[in-house]
Amino acid sequence: MTGVKNFGLGERHGCAVADTSVRCWGRGNHGELGDGNLADHTLTNAATGPSLPTGAKQVAVGGYHTCALLADQTVQCWGWNGNGQLGNGGSADSAVPVVTNF
């Protein structure tokens, strides 16, 4: 992975912004890798998918969820949402990025 601008490590997963795309790896059982499934990935490029946002500037990683700040100043989050971590007004986990309501 080249061009890493920002990265974060959670409880059992990590994500990085490489160029302008988000790449995640590690445990994915709550959807925290954002690639649309609940599988674990040991390689960064294995966890990329069409659902992950492009145009990312920064990534923030929580215990079992991830958020990305995009170039258009919106935030998208994915993963565990039992306490509303994704900021979308719900409490259901999401294996794909959802737009955070500000």
3D architecture notes:
The protein has 102 residues and is mostly beta strands. It has one domain (4-99). Helix content is 0%, strand content 40%. It is built from no helices and 7 strands. It has strands at residues 4-9, 13-18, 21-26, 56-61, 65-70, 75-79, 94-99. A 4-stranded antiparallel beta sheet has the order 4-5-6-7, with no helix packed on it. A 3-stranded antiparallel beta sheet has the order 1-2-3, with no helix packed on it. The relative contact order is 0.21. The mean pLDDT is 90.
Any key phrases for this structure?
102 residues, 7 strands, mainly beta, globular, three-stranded antiparallel beta sheet
Quick summary:
The chain is an all-beta fold and 102 residues long. The chain has strands spanning 4-9, 13-18, 21-26, 56-61, 65-70, 75-79, 94-99. The chain has one domain (4-99).
Topology:
Elements: E1 4-9, E2 13-18, E3 21-26, E4 56-61, E5 65-70, E6 75-79, E7 94-99
Antiparallel strand pairs: 1-2, 2-3, 4-5, 5-6, 6-7
Count of individual domains: 1
Main pleated sheet: 4 strands, antiparallel
**Class of secondary structure makeup:** mainly beta
Q: Helical element count? A: 0
Q: What helical percentage do the residues reach?
A: under 10%
Quaternary state of the chains: single chain
Write down the overall mean pLDDT: 90
| Number of extended strands | 7
Strand order of the largest sheet: 4-5-6-7
- The first-to-last residue Cα distance is 32 Å
Uncertain segments are none
Estimate the global geometry from the Cα principal axes.
globular
User: What is the CA-atom radius of gyration, in angstroms?
Assistant: 12 Å
Strand residues, percent: 35-45%
- N-to-C series of helices and strands: EEEEEEE
